Amino acid sequence: MFFTVVASPALHSDELRGLLTETHFPFFSGAIGQLLLARYFYFQIACGLVAWLLALAEWVYLGKPERKFVFSLLGILLVLALIGGHALWPKLHHLHLARFASNLPPAARAAAAKSFGAWNLVCQTLNLAMLGGLAVYLWRVTHPADAPRFVSAVKFRG
Hints:
This protein is mainly α. Helices cover 82% and strands 0% of the residues. It is built from four helices and no strands.
């Protein structure tokens, strides 16, 4: 949430444009964004792996089949984080460098900028899908569908 709502918009803000000046703004703000995006995906992968392993341990320990949904959801989120960190980020990084490369012809830079926009849209869509998956996971964890483990005293009649 922090990266999507706070950090990413700040990298494209007028305040940063004023700090970096017009000559350095688009390249360096994007380069800073690429550095943060790489760390963001590594953080997502680490958190996803820990959550998946905890869900696996809980599923094995408790043996409840209802936990399969949570386990599967965390597995999907982990795979999406791996795709983002090992497929999308390197592509975005390469295209960011290509769109500002002075040794490339203007047509190649324009094509790289267009491709960067499309891949950035894919990355943002993936990020929103992951936030939606995390919201579903949070809802499932806070509202378990488990039946009571013990029979209540009200059910015993004399």
